[in-house]
Amino acid sequence: MEIYKSHLIHQTKTLREALAQLNLVENAKELILFVVNDINQVLGTITDGDIRRAILSDVDLTSEVTQAMNKNFKSLTQGNFSIETIDEFKSKNISFIPILNQNKELLNLIDLKKKKTLLPVDAVLMAGGRGSRLAPLTDNTPKPLLKIGDKPVIEYNIDRLINFGVENIYISINYLGNQIKDYFGDGSSKGIKIHYIEEDKPLGTFGALTLVDEFVHKEIIVMNSDLLTTLDYEQFYRTYNSDNADMQIAAIPYEVKIPYAVLETENNIIHDFKEKPTKVFYSNAGIYILKKALLQKIPANEFYNATDFMKMIIGEKKKVTSYSVLDYWLDIGSPEDFERAQIDIKKLKL
Fold this sequence. Notes:
Blueprint: E1 8-10, H1 15-24, E2 32-36, E3 42-47, H2 48-56, E4 76-77, H3 83-91, E5 96-100, E6 106-111, E7 121-127, E8 147-148, E9 151-152, H4 153-163, E10 168-173, H5 177-184, E11 193-198, H6 204-207, E12 219-224, E13 227-229, H7 233-242, E14 247-257, E15 262-266, E16 269-274, E17 278-291, H8 306-315, E18 320-324, E19 329-331, H9 335-344
Parallel strand pairs: 1-2, 4-5, 7-10, 7-12, 10-11, 14-18
Antiparallel strand pairs: 2-3, 5-6, 8-9, 12-17, 13-19, 14-17, 15-16
């Protein structure tokens, strides 16, 4: 949050000091300060307009900013907001939003002009695999840290999630996991929080989720860290939300063109035929969004894949939907995929 320090002012500062600070704010279109107390609680906001109105009401410039601040400011409570709230802020051209905890303490300042949105989700990136098919590249480097272009593949995924307002990210690590921890640290350099799920043994795609004590939000995006994709996470979330799904799976469409006429028969009787039809199949893209409450169904400390989880909740008649990925997507699982990614990244806006 260091980047927004210029937008914070202590409650004991004067209106004159507030004017001077507003004059130093880098973005002239965001001439607003957030008034905080000693324990970092946001008490209100103050703008040059508030100060002018205070002066017209005979408030002296040596008075504390609390004499002119707006106490009815807009804010979000961490883990307790919706995408509809963000839409409302955007419609009113409110761009700077303080994120508070339950005690009204400031956790972060979000600039919606620098993000596509603010999704109310946590994210888990699976980064514990050995990546043996990419040896010898992965002999001394974990697969997620292999560079595509000028940065590791996992960093593209983290940066894209950040661009959609995901602020709480968990990384599941095992093989050479300390290298990933050393590279990203606690996430503060990117203005987010990164937590590490350390596996003592391989737990599969979803088994590692049982090692997390508590997630912040009610929904979680879980994905493989070795994907290269331009997936629109906002549309991914909105579709899941509007469908009222328990879980949604990103799916890659594959077209299979059959070069012959296909006979449609029943009991050896031909009732129709199609000339050189194209069949479309959907493959798991390794990106999921689901309700946090469902995680209690996963057996603790056991190897448990996403497919195991999907079969279980489908069997329980939960609503599991698919989302067709029409954006760029590549699973970097082989040397050929790795080389293709090096070429594609030059054209992708990531």
